[in-house]
Description:
The protein is α/β, with parallel strands linked by helices. 48% of the residues lie in helices and 21% in strands.
Amino acid sequence: MTEGTYRYAMDDRHFFLKLSGHLKYRGSADFDQFLETFSDYLKNRDVLIDLTGAEYLDSTNLGLLARIADRMLTEQGKKTTIISTNEEITKLLINIGFDEFFIIINHPEEFQTDLQKIPELQDKERSMAAMMLDAHRALMKISEKNRETFRDVVTLLEKEVEGEKK
């Protein structure tokens, strides 16, 4: 089992994300933090997410990707492209409704750029529960099926986040 890694790069026209390994909520806090300032990188760029090295994505990471798609559609009026060559990952993406909000392709794109590691967490205030709550809310926005699937998870996370505020 390979620990998840999150890398990025950009050029004048594209913003690239490469997610690899086992992508689980415990390792995604830096990625979540990075997405808070993500809009700064989007100015007139297309977003390309490379999942060819992904072995597993949990629902929190799927929700983080959904946040990217939502932001791109809202702010740029564009769909985000996902590259997935792993049949199981592609099935998961389609089953969760990503084919409605993303362009999913199964052939790797060649790009010449140095990928950088997502910066380490700066804001230690945001709890894991808050991150997971936002990610699952983003998944619920995608479809009615997802609203049903993740309703109980969101309810539990809302209670946990409220408890943290007290």
